[in-house]
Design brief:
The chain is of the alpha+beta class and 129 residues long. 19% of the residues lie in helices and 35% in strands. The longest helix is centred in the first third of the chain and has 24 residues.
């Protein structure tokens, strides 16, 4: 009896196993980023372009600075800015309206809490007046 068929069978099983591991390991990787979209509107519901949004922890954590969980962005023409974080958290979004002459907005504060969830995009609207 020839030993050759055994080698072919072992080789075929090895190839199938290799492809299975590669396929399933890449299929199981899920996007776990936490995303937040903050929209800033005026009291009449119109978008506020050029507002600065800072999103981060509302307090300093006992274990030290959480600067890695802080980001700043500027709203676009639709009054929105998007942020991506790697960890779930409850963060505070603070809005500074654009500087206009004469001033159109009060000085605030304009804030809102955002609860980031793994693999989700959370939306929050903050109204400035």
């Amino acid at each position: 009896m020839s030993k050759r068929p055994h080698y072919i069978l072992i080789f075929a099983i090895g190839i199938i196993t290799l492809f299975s591991v590669v396929f399933y390991s890449s299929a199981c990787k899920k996007n776990k980023d936490c995303k937040a979209t903050i929209t800033v509107t005026n009291s009449m519901g119109g978008p506020v372009f050029g507002a600065t949004i800072t999103i981060g922890p509302s307090q300093t954590a006992p274990q030290g600075s959480l600067a890695i969980q802080s980001q700043t962005g500027v709203t676009d023409g639709s009054g929105s800015a998007s942020f991506t974080f790697t960890l779930p958290a409850i963060l505070q979004a603070s809005v500074v309206p654009p500087v206009t002459v004469p001033p159109m907005y009060s000085s605030g504060p304009f804030t809102g809490l955002v609860q980031l969830e793994e693999g989700q995009t959370v939306t929050k609207t903050i109204i400035v007046n």
